[in-house]
Each structure stands twice: as structure tokens, then as C-alpha cells.
Amino acid sequence: MEAVVSAADLAKTRRQLTESGRSGKLDAPALRQVLVDLHEFWLTSKGAELGIKPHSGFAIVAVGGLGRGEMLPYSDLDLILLHDDMPAERVSEVADGLWYPLWDANIPLDHSVRTVPQALQVAGDDVTAALGLLEARHIAGDEDLSTLLIGGVRQQWRNDIRTRFPEVVAHAQDRWRRAGDIAHRAEPDLKNGRGGLRDVQLLGALAIAQLTHGMASLRPDSPGAGPQVAYTRLLDIRTELHRIAGRPREHVQAQDADEIGAALRIGDRFDLARVISDSARTISYSIDVGLRTAGNALPRRGLAKLRRSPLRRPLDEGVVEHSGEIVLARNAIPSKDPGLILRVAAASARTGLPISASTLSRLADYAPELREPWPAEARSDLLVLLSSGHHMVDPIEALDRTGLWGRLLPEWGAVRDLPPRDAIHTWTVDRHLVETAAYASAMTTRVSRPDLLVLGALIHDLGKGRGADHSIVGADLAVQVGNRFGLWPQDVAILSDMVRHHLLLPQVATRRDLDDPATAESVVETLGHNRVLLELLAALAEADSLATGPGVWGEWKASLILDLVRRSMRLIDGEEPSAPEPLTDEQLATAAEGDFAVRLVRAEGQHTYRVTMVAPDQPGLLSKMAGVLALGGLRSHSACAQSADGKAINSFLVVPMFGSPPDAGLLRQQLIAAIEGKIDVLARLDARERDSPIPTIGTVTTIPGTVVTIGASAGSTDPEVDGAGHPKNAVPALFAVAPPRVTWLDAPAGEAVLEVRSDDRIGLLSRVSAVLERHGADIRWAKVSTLGATGVDIFGLRLATDTDAARAELAEAVVAVCPPPQPVREEDGDGPQSYGGTGRSGVPIS
Predict the structure, then answer these.
(1) Rounded Cα distance, 709 and 720, in Å
(2) Is the four-CA dihedral 387, 392, 398, 401 of positive or negative sign?
(3) 409 and 283 inside one domain
(4) Same domain (yes/no): 83, 30
(5) Helical H segments across 616-656, by residue range
(6) Which of 726, 736, 730 is CA-nearest to residue 701?
(7) pLDDT attached to residue 736
């Protein structure tokens, strides 16, 4: 490199290097390194000329890009002239000699003149200055003076981080609000946006404070491969952006994207957008983990020092909450429990708590692949995850960033970070699918198959990015996915038809004459006169539109689709009235054991059991049986209530909340006590909710189906359990995603059939049954199923008073005991935000 004797030569050489980069002589990393060497050489030479030498009492310290060794073509020079309390005249002479040549050469300069105490004071008062000084690097002059500053800033940062951490978080959140989320911006701010370069630099600052491990890489097979790789990608893109724009710029604009992609050998602007999204999401995940880890690592102050260690609260089999995170129980063995990944994700979605990074790492290293077809337990946990509204976004993102989501759904790789071809879309294709499922989860009580609704929403665009009609390709993929999930063949067919025809209703409703009878007839013929498929497509059309972008779903479009659906429904034959299933041999054998009998056997799945309960038929019996199971820590996934020879014979498919189920003999004793009035089941359920309020972590509120234990024995880190080995004071969350829906179905004369669709709640079947019985309704039979987090319960009744008014009053009373829907989330310019009061890092937002 030629000697640089003036600032004009420096500016000229900068221009030459940038132009040589355009011609392909220097790639982005090489250009940055040459620019660093160039500026160091000039500053060292100029400093020596001005007397800035070892032991001179002066030093040149670089911060910003030069401090990090990452000079971009049009980066500012961020310099500090450090002096050891030298005379003012001498300081002014040296400063003028250093700054004026740079100004005269029009080289952008951000400068300051400080003593070490002055610089430390600035760092102590201003978090932005502190973050900058943490990247300071000695360039020329008195190295001892630079070392004193650099060491002092870092020591001060470590000493003060306990009190400054909230300010650091607020500073980052304010930057994110201004710049937006890089992964989902049309013109992302690579430097300041969420998931950008500043976030990786913040991770470095937290590592200096000894609160995190900095940029520890994810697994090599994880998307993005880790924050350091993602950081380098974004830095290369920013370098080319400077070079192509010919000026300092942080936003990647459409007109420059193709040229940047070509220069970096990435591809066209769509390929570039995919790389940016992937890198930003990797960094976003890393900063979430870093801030959460740092917050948990902070030393306690005041009375907090006297508190016991955080309790480990059980949430599901092998899954507990500890220090505000989802972690594995001590006895959990990931290598022997393939379904553990989904139970962890479902627990995170239900509670709003983040999954611990160490837990994700253990699962990635040791959890085996789920065998195909999936067991019913794994499918149920997936449905719980997909039924949790926008709470599902963060756990799915965490699984995806650590390579676990791709194991569950290998087809996801084709749409991961895939940019939309239509500007009307807000999200990348994979995020659009998750958003659609989140919106669909609020519509699960509208349809008879909520499980197929959320599954169809998750995969409806899975065929994109494969070079053919995504609806046709996606329909074939849906068959593949449905078979893997273990759906029945007829359900696989419906799922495939949902994907194949997910655009049918919007296209027909907005493009054809609805008054023409042929319009509805064509829809009905296309769907094979399938009423279930029609209602699923109607809900999916709304969820898909809401997840596309602002203004896509409105009153006009909604009214057209609703009109089309109504006309089509009238052409489809009515369904046969619901009827009870015949009794099985197992049920009859249990009934023969005596007046009171309880049989508990393991069903399909590692943690699923079938409980058959028999007792003399009498009013209120179903409520008591279901309540006894709920108090025993058993969640009912399905139930069938019938009677024969004066006995009620009720079967329940249950899953323990945690651990093993109680003994059948204990359940029998509790059932007899409940029937004899010695145990008031509903009163105990009510007392548990009233006396044991649902805990929150920060400002995160628990949500549907959550089971949280409160109260542990003194000095213990494990939950207090009852005689049956179940957590005491386990209470459900009372907030639902979808509103409850109560419908009277067609029934033979003299009978009434009531369908209740509601988000699940521990003891819900007991409460609904009690309401029916209090209103004089004789429950002749019942079929209960829980599909994910949504219950679809059908009761065959004989009403004491069968009038429209009586039915309306009964329906209103049933709705009153169902979980109410949670408030609608707030939105900002970056699209949907999570429910609750935290940012994605789990740090409370004031």
C-alpha cells in the first residue's frame, strides 16, 4: 500500500478501494480489512507527526466500525483523542492537527477529546456512549492510557450492570420500535432493526458484563447456524449496500437488492430477502436468549436476597417451570421420550413462558425422531400448541431456530424465510403459516373439527417455493403430513382438500355472481357435498386473509363469503342426528364387578389411560365422576357417558397432569364419597381457583389449559404433592383463545341434543354437566372429545321444560362456566404482537 501523507490521499484511496470492489477485485470482507489497515496507517502516521507517541500522554482510540475492525466504505470515523490531563493549549494544538485535515478531506468524523475520568463519566451517564466505549480499541500513542480507559470502562460496566440493565433493555426496545423487525420488513434496517448488527454488539456487551456467553453458536444444522455466521452475512450485505449506493445507508431497498445479491453470489432479490430474514431471525432468537439469561444472572438486591431458590413448578410430564423459563424435569430423559419436544412447546404456548436455551440444546442433542405415524399423545400436544393463539409464535420460532421444528415437519425447509411474491403479504411464507394458525385458533369453536382447522391453517401454503401451483403441490404434501401425524384416512383426505381448495371460497365469492344458482352448485360439487370441509374452508379463508396483511379481510369480503357459504350449505344434505355409541365388552365387564367400580388401564400412548367408572344411575353423576378425575390431576381427552340396567357406565380417556395416575381404588373411594355427599366436587374445584390465584412471571399471564402449582413444602425445590402423588393446588388458567359456542342439534322428538364447543379447562366437563343437571336436564348420554385445546362435547338430554326460552336460558348458563376469550392483542406497524405484557425476550415492558 502506498504511503499516505495527507488526508486528501486518504480520501482518494478510500474512493479507489470502493471502486475496485465494484469491479470485483475485493470482496466485502477483504474490503473492510483493507479500509481498517488504511485508516490505522494514516492515523498512526499523522499521530506520530503530531507527537502522539508512546508515553506522550496522548492516545488515539477508535470506537464504532474502526474499533470493531469493520470499516465500511462510507462508515464514519469514530475517534477519541485521549490525553493525560495535558495543558489546554497543547491539547487544542494536537486536536486541531488531527481533526482539521479529515474535515478538509470531507471524511465523515465523529470525534471527542477526553481524559480517562471524563470518558468514564460520560460512559456512566449515557448507555449509548457506554455501549460504544465497550468496543474501544487502541490505535496510536500512549497505549497505557488507552488500556486504562478500556479497562476502566469494562470494569465500570460490570460493576453497574445490575442497576443499568433495565435501561439497557429499554434502550434496545426503543431502537426496535423505531427500526422494526428486520425479518419482516420490506426495506429492513440492517444496523438498528430487531435481529440486526446492533443486537449482536449488545450480546457482546452482555458478555463483557459476564451475564451471558456472548455469541455461542447454535447447532451446525440449525437454520442460520448461529449469530456469528448471521452477523457476518448481514455485515457483508451492508458493505455491498454502501458500495452500491455510493453513500452510507442502512436500509436495503428493492432497487438495490438484485445488485447486492449478485455481488455476493446469493441470487436475486428474493434470495437476498431470504438470507436477510434467516440471519435476522437467528440473531433475534439469540438476543432473546441473551437478555433472558442476563436478567436471570443478575445478583439479587435487598429483601430479594432472603428469598428461597425459585420453585420448580410442574406443567406436564417431564416439563417444569423454573426461574420464569420452561425446563425439563429432573427425571426427564429426552433420549427415551420422543414426544417431549412437543410437550415442552405446548407448555410454553400455554403459559407464555420462554423455553430455556439449555432445554432446547438438550432436546436437539438427545431427543429421538418421532416414529411414524405419530402417537396420539404427540398429535394432541401439537394441537394444543396450535390452539394457543399468538402465544404459539415464540415456541415455534425457538424450535425452528434450533432445528427441532424441521425435524417435526421436514417440508418446512422449502418455505422457511421464503419471501412473498405479492407485496400485499406482510410476512415471509413460513411466518404467514404460523400467523394463519394463530388466527384460526380463535375460530376453533365455529367448526366441528377444530383439529383439522389449525392443522390446515399451518400447512395451507406449504406447497409454495416449489415451482408449481402451490395448492396442487400442497395437497399432495398434506397427505404426506397427515399420514405422518397419524390422522385417520378420511381426515387426511379432508386435510388435503382444505389445502387444495383454500382459495376456492374467496375467488368464487369475489369473482362470480352469487345470485346465480350455478355458483353455489359448483362449490358444492367441487367439495363433494362435504359440510365439514365447507365450514373449515370458510374459517380458513378468514384466518388466511387476516394473516396476509392489513385490509385484506373486511366487511365486504366477509359478507360475500358468508353469503356463498350459506347458499352452499342449503344445497348440502343435513347430517344424521347424533346418537350414543354401543357399550363395549370392557365397559360391560366393569359394570358386572358391582354397583361401584372403577377400572384404570393404559391406553395407546406412553402417558394416556382409559378410566371406566360405574355407579347406580342418578342425577348429577356425570358431573361428580368428571370432577373426581379433575381433582385427581387427570385431564379428560374424551369421554362417553351411557347407562344400562340402572347403572351409569362412563368411560374417560385421560392424561395425568404430571407423574402417574392415582390408583383406581382411590378414585373409587373418592367417587363413593362424592356420591354420598362427603365431598363437594364443584366446591373443591371452585376453592382451588379462588384460594390459589394463577401466578404470573413478570407480566406474562398464563393462558388456556395451563396447570400451575402453588405452594411447596418449606425448604423444598419440588412441588408439594397429595397422597396420590399429584401436585397440590394445581389450578387451570381461565383465559381462552376462542369464544365458547353452544348449539342445539337436530334430535328425535322428545329428546334434545346439545353441542358445546369451548377451549378446555380442568373440570369443564364436571361444571357443564352440573349446570345441565341443575336446570333439570336428564343426561341420557354424552360424547366428549378434546381436540388440542378445544373441547367438542355433545349431550343427549331429556329436558324438564322444552321451550325456546328454557333452551336459551340453559345455553346461557353453560356458556357462563366456559373459559371466556382473552382480550384482543394490540398491533403496531410491524404486525401482530404477542399477547401479554412482555417483549419476545421475556423482559417486562413497562
Answers:
(1) 8
(2) positive
(3) no
(4) yes
(5) 621-631
(6) 736
(7) 67
Do residues 408 and 484 touch, judged by C-beta distance below 8 A?
A: no
How many Cβ atoms are within 10 Å of 693's Cβ, its own excluded? 10
Query: Same structural domain for residues 154 and 288?
Result: no
Q: Is 634 helix (H, G, I), strand (E, B) or coil?
A: strand
Half-sphere exposure of 555 (CA within 13 A, CB side): 0
CA distance 235 to 230: 9
Q: How confident is the model at residue 240 (pLDDT cuts 50, 70, 90)?
A: very high
Task: Please state the φ and ψ torsions of residue 720, each to the nearest 5 degrees.
Answer: -70, 135
Which residues fall within 8 angstroms of residue 683, CB to CB, at 6 or more apart? Answer: none
Backbone dihedral angles phi then psi of residue 802, each to the nearest 5 degrees: -105, 85
- CATH code of 768's domain: 3.30.70.260
The CA distance from 720 to 313, in Å, is 10
Report whether 509 contacts 561 (CB < 8 A).
yes
Q: At what angle do helices 88-104 and 7-22 cross, to 10 degrees?
A: 40
Torsion 205-275-390-373 (CA) sign: negative
Residue ending a domain, among 276, 296, 316, is 296
Helix then strand then coil, % of the chain, to nearest 5: 50, 15, 35
pTM over 0.85: no
427: enclosing H helix or E strand: none
Domain extent, residue 357, equals 308-571
Neighbours of 213 (CB within 10 A): 13
Q: Residue 370: which CATH number?
A: 1.10.3090
Cis before 334 (ω within 30): no
At 808, is the pLDDT very low, low, confident or very high (cuts 50, 70, 90)?
A: very high
Calpha distance 519→533 (Å, rounded): 17
654 shares its domain with 604: yes
Type of residue found at 149: L
Q: Has residue 704 got a pLDDT over 50? A: no
Q: Is 411 among the domain residues?
A: yes
Cβ distance 218 to 279 under 8 Å? no
Task: Give a yes or no: residue 828 inside a domain.
Answer: no
Residue 716 in any domain: the answer is no
| Distances from the Cα of 133 to the Cα of 178, 248, 403, 798, angstroms | 23, 22, 36, 77
Length of the chain (residues): 846
Mark whether 367 and 285 lie in a shared domain: no
3-state secondary structure of 150: helix
Domain count, the chain: 4
Give the SS3 label for residue 418.
coil
User: Could you give the CA distance from residue 194 to residue 281 in angstroms, rounded to a whole number?
Assistant: 9
CA nearest neighbour of 544 among 706, 406, 695, 424: 424
Q: Give 779-783 contacts, CB < 8 A, sequence gap 24+.
A: 779/622, 779/641, 780/580, 780/643, 780/751, 781/580, 781/640, 781/641, 781/642, 781/643, 782/622, 782/639, 782/640, 782/641, 783/578, 783/580, 783/581, 783/639, 783/640, 783/641
Rounded CA separation 318/179 (Å): 40
For residues 317 and 418, state if they share a domain: yes
Q: Are 57 and 145 in contact (CB under 8 A)?
A: yes
Q: Which of residues 136, 167, 198 is at a domain's end?
A: 167
Q: Check residue 829 and give its pLDDT.
A: 38
Pairwise CA distance, residues 543 & 461, whole Å: 13
pLDDT in tens, 422-472: 777 888 999 999 999 999 999 999 999 999 999 999 999 999 989 899 999
Q: Same domain for 117 and 192?
A: no
CA angle at residue 509 from 504 to 514, to 5 degrees? 125
Residue with C-alpha cell 408439594? Answer: 720
- Residue 208 and residue 394: Cα distance in Å, rounded? 27
Of 203, 196, 247, 255, the C-alpha closest to 72 is 247
Q: Are 751 and 639 part of one and the same domain? A: yes
Q: Is 156 part of a structural domain of the chain?
A: yes
Confidence of residue 389 (pLDDT cuts 50, 70, 90): very high
